[in-house]
Amino acid sequence: MGNGHKRNEPCICGSGKKYKNCCLHKENYIPLNAIPIPHNPEPFLNFVPSTEYQGQKIRAIWNTLYFRPLLETFHEFLILIAYRMTYGKDFHELQVTIQPEKRHVTFKWWVAFCDWGMINSEHFFETEHGKIYFGNTTGEVQSLLQHAFDLFCLQTVNRLPDFFIERLKDTHEFQGARYEVTVAAIMARAGFDIEFLDDKNKSETHCEFIATHRESGQQIGVEAKSKRRKGVLHEEGVFDEETDFKGNIMHLFRKARMQKPVGIPFIIFIDMNLPSKDVDLQNIEVEPEKTWENDIDQIYSNYKSKQSPMPDPFNALYFTNFAYYYSGNKSDLNPSVAYIKKSDSPEHGISNIAVLDSILNSIMRYSVIPKEI
User: Fold this and answer.
1) pTM of the model
2) What whole-number distance in Å separates Cα of residue 322 and Cα of residue 359?
3) I want to staple 226 with a disulfide (CB 3.0 to 4.6 A). Which of 48, 137, 179, 312 is the partner?
4) Which domains does the chain have, with CATH numbers?
5) How far is 187 from 358, CA to CA, in rounded Å?
6) Per-residue pLDDT tens digits for 51-103
């Protein structure tokens, strides 16, 4: 493993020598008995637990160890390393030179995170090692933190493909690529290995990636679609909540169905990309015809009336809404919402019901980010 330590920095062992002249070429310089084994917050991912050594905290992503400040929290590590490492130094240096309104949205979230840190500089508690600062998260900060955690989870096992990272950095491609990261992370936390498919190498009929359930060996094709809204995530125009509140995802549903791979089960995720509202559909005082849940019900009902008696190309539809960024710099976050439709007549069945249950459980805990690993 690499360790993220630079050759000319003081060696991590505390000898006083430069790293290149001391432990660089030693195979085992971290005492194995110094590594604790805490409860894994994501049992299907083999997180390497952090440990303290020589006054530093050691963390791992994929095949690299990072020696970090002892007081740095896991949430800070996600943003400072998992996010910034994935997008790269050149990306961030370029963003600094761009006019603020034209910057990549993740860099805007990064600036919001820095501002948030300054605002909460007086909120801290004392530990034996010093002060740890805290504060209520905002929509922008939570969006960056969740994106960073998704990147961290995906790269626990393997590095993201270069073509995929380039899509994330492209403002035109970001929204779709970000949601693919979201969905892939959900599947990874549900116990699946992920195989991304490169647009340049995919056949005419394709999905975003193939997920293989490690326990059962079940392969599933996964498609992810994100609804574009005016004025949101690099889209031109101004978002109008009154006119955009309904789902309006019929075309995404139609396009997604056409991406089914041959011979294996298929599931579809659709991102509603709307400000979430706590709507109780059992409350007769609410107007359910104005909710996107009702919009989905109507679209699905129309589809089934035309599809019967043909089998469905999909096994399940997952309509999600994890749009914290609509809250901006406010702390009253939009709640996470998921709406699910399971097919009763799929073209290719999934014999092990635990496979779909694991996906559902992963979706339900999507916004839960561990405080420490």
Assistant:
1) 0.85
2) 16
3) 179
4) 1-70 (no CATH), 172-364 (3.40.1350)
5) 9
6) 999 999 999 998 899 999 998 999 999 999 999 999 999 999 999 999 999 99
